[in-house]
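Hi all, posting the design record for the shared folder.

TITLE: backbone redesign
STEP: 1 of 1
STRUCTURE INPUT:
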């Protein structure tokens, strides 16, 4: 008879748990495809693979909780795996794209190291994810979003200087003690955050339909900016109104 303190899980449960970890790691397959497209300067396709990577990241946690992956295969650190995939897809590759495309002033690679370093310190911060409260601590390294808007809006409209200014601002926010909402676990208005993210993703896909061969309708760009603006304003408001646990 097994000790209740050390439950025994079936082979099927373990296979499912391993499958969830493999599903998370599939984000790195997306990363490889993103990197290949960056090298070939096929930025539209790279952004489409970034969307796929985001969809994997948005759903793997639900699967992990449903199938109790942490309990079934405790020797694999799912949090560390998720952080590695996220750093590659949300920080390193978007900044690689920005540097390779020449969207930063010269020396672009040197400037790109600022957000790279700021983000890695944010990732290794033990309190970076306040999942119980529904917040990230500091700017949550959405450099894929920054790269997208740089490609379709900031760089064509304003040039390299403003792109650098925004990159440095976001780098500073990465290490400051401001809290930003974790959409899947938002402390309030969760359905608004998640539903808005779904609509926003569809808007991004519509913009990519035009990019880069055709002019992007300006109205579509402004519509796409509504959700990021809401996210930032709502995060600052909730950070101010909700006490820390």
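Okay, here is what came back for every position:
SEQUENCE:
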């Amino acid at each position: 008879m097994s000790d209740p303190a050390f439950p025994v899980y079936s082979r099927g449960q373990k296979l499912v748990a391993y499958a969830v970890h493999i599903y998370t790691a599939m984000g790195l397959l997306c990363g490889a495809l993103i990197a290949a497209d960056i090298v070939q300067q096929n930025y539209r396709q790279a952004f489409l693979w970034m969307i796929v990577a985001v969809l994997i990241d948005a759903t793997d946690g639900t699967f992990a909780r449903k199938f109790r992956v942490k309990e079934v295969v405790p020797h694999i650190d799912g949090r560390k795996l998720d952080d590695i995939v996220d750093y590659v897809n949300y920080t390193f590759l978007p900044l690689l794209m920005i540097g390779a495309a020449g969207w930063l002033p010269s020396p672009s690679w040197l400037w790109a190291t600022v957000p790279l370093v700021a983000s890695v310190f944010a990732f290794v911060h033990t309190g970076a994810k306040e999942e119980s409260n529904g917040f990230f601590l500091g700017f949550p390294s959405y450099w894929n979003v920054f790269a997208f808007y740089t490609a379709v809006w900031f760089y064509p409209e304003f040039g390299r200087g403003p792109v650098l200014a925004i990159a440095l601002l976001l780098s500073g926010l990465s290490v400051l003690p401001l809290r930003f909402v974790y959409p899947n676990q938002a402390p309030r208005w969760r359905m608004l955050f998640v539903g808005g993210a779904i609509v926003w993703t569809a808007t991004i896909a519509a913009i990519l339909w035009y990019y880069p061969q055709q002019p992007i309708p300006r109205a579509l760009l402004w519509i796409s900016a509504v959700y990021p603006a809401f996210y930032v304003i709502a995060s600052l408001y909730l950070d101010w109104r909700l006490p820390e646990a």
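COMMENT: The radius of gyration is 19 Å.
Let me know if anyone wants the other runs.
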